[in-house]
Fold these 4 entries.
Entry 1:
Amino acid sequence: MSRRILVVEDDQDTQAYLAKALREAGYTVEATASGRDGLVHAIGGGFDAMVIDRMLPDLDGLSLVRSVRAAGIQTPAILLTALSAIDERVNGLRAGADDYVVKPFSFAELSARLEAVLRRPAETKAEQTQIACGDLELDLIARTARRGDRRIELLPREFQMLEYLMRRQGRVVTRTMLLEGVWDYRFDPRTNVIDVHISRLRRKIDAEGEQALIHTVRGAGYKLAAAI
């Protein structure tokens, strides 16, 4: 059975070229010009890889990839973009893309990169939908948090910050890492925004009488851990 590829590209000429070339290479192709339709197809599953344009009119490529990853879908994704800046590629990879191809591109290069991501070993374990640290649990699908029997109400930014810390539990996370990973800043805003949000998050996570999970590492940053 041939590999199934999802192509999300709003430029009709590029989409037609890609679909034709991929089919000639032996792939089964589903193509759409809509980011929202692409998201529906991707979450529906059944694809071996995705080729997604960075700039789409309704739901941009970065948002599409982030939404797919938030839904627990780990299908390899290659982003296409006319923007070649380093920051643009970094943003794409951090959003969950597996590779990046800059337009104009040769099909030979795209095909080689597609073959490379398809060669990567498939995950042998179930897709991660929950993260735990001690009795603290984060549900990545429902976007909810609990500590023991206690439900924790988090604002979207607080959830992002907690997820970032939990994915790196046991390791020191610097303020710069949080600014880049949660706020997408590439500069120091010279404010105490990190300290303020950490303080609010700590009050929600570490209730009175509970073991502290969020720790300040003096001169370095923060660490989330069940034990020091």
Entry 2:
Amino acid sequence: MKTPELITEPAAWQARCAAARDGGARIALVPTMGYLHAGHLSLLREARRRADVAGGPGLAVASIFVNPTQFGPTEDLSRYPRDLDGDLRKCGEAGIDWVLAPSDPRSMFAPGHETWVDVSGVSQGLCGASRPGHFRGVATVVTKLFNLTRPHVALFGEKDFQQLAVIRAMVRDLAFGLEVLGMPIVREPDGLALSSRNAYLSADERARAVALSRSVREAQEATARGERDAAALRARARARLEAAPARVDYVEIVHPETLRPVDVAAPGSVMLVAAYVGATRLIDNGRLP
């Protein structure tokens, strides 16, 4: 197992990445907030493969940064799980070359920071409605990571489906000139989508949390049988969540690119759900057949 090189200063990271790219390296980046699980590892392994796809010198890199600007004032920034040593070990197992983990958040967001990236349209509604300012923080920090790294490809998980849509729109509209690759959700054997926030769940809450994936799967099964009424599908999913019990944030069926709600669940539409199990907010989604 290789040990990835840890870089804590964004300026040093930028210089190293620029030199590598100028030297012909193909760079694949995985931005994370750390506390890595098997879902992250699928991204890291694919980054290794994508970096080496051209047959030349490839550079697979990851960032670990709990971004304060995407947390609301009452959210879990201070207690978000962290394990840098464990994360570095997992990055090494996945073949990552370098890891950027800023030692001081002020190196990414200095006092007096005034520039923000807002992506309208796909950031509206869903998590954008529940977490005001969240996607502004996401888009801004990802823009910074793209500018620091200048990757050829960046990899994100599809569990955060709206986040992926926001980043794709930003890359398209601002002409970043890189590929954004979405990777499938990785799940526990019982269907629960892997999430760093699953660590918050008690044993009882963990058992109840599987209602999110079951509500999505049942909608997929219903559409496979011919159900196309989005309202009926949403109602069944909401009932499944409330019976868990879980406190529903939203249940929606949307167009896969615009994320606008649909009345008819056409093939390829996406069901997205968010609910609180205990005090923990979880999300899940799935494409409808």
Entry 3:
Amino acid sequence: MSPPASQAVFVLGGARSGKSRFAESLVSDTGLERHYVATGQAWDDEMRERIAKHRADRGDLWQTHEEPIELVEQLAAIDAEGRAVLVDCLTLWVTNLMMAERDMAAEFAALTAFLPTARSRLVLVSNEVGLGIVPENRMAREFRDHAGRLHQMVAAASAEVYFIAAGLPLKMKG
């Protein structure tokens, strides 16, 4: 059985591929009220600086919501017609879920079940981590496997899927 129809857009790519910039342009181009759901956590000064730079680069036209774990609940809380919501990024969310020892299958199922019910235009960003070598340690392999499963589920539940490389979007679905 295929998932219900969704208006979600899924944007994948490697680190520094241009995926976030592309996703931000997709949201900006809608003309809708802009919301940004950040899943990253500032564990050190370098990450705090990155977060501050990203927030400054986006400017005042975005409402930022920081939610490292309860992503579906945050999306439900801000979901409304006339809004576009950017989630950046799902791989940081996977890391946070792993560190919190959450039920990955249940969390992923909840997210993909939410997508077709959303009234907002959703754009979800994630890092493609399955194109490189097999990680040398168990946790890294589990992370890669969780991310790969989540990506398949989100791609199946999304109306459009893009892969970004060297700043160039390749439309894979929709």
Entry 4:
Amino acid sequence: MILAHPTRITEICEGSLTAEDGTLRLELDSTSLGRSGTAKLVTALGRSIRLSGDTIDYTLRMAAVGEPLQHHLAATLRRD
């Protein structure tokens, strides 16, 4: 997956897709990060995305500004 963020960071991620019992799981880790001269220093990103029925669970891990890779944010989206 290739992403361009509004925070002046670009990201290339690679990972795996698994399907089990009607649930899709995508695990991604950054393999290349680019940034403008004014962007914060992000050194690693990782994502977990799970689709089960009408629900998507998403978590983001980030290493930035001298901090190690750690949980950064999470969201759950439900279709009504």
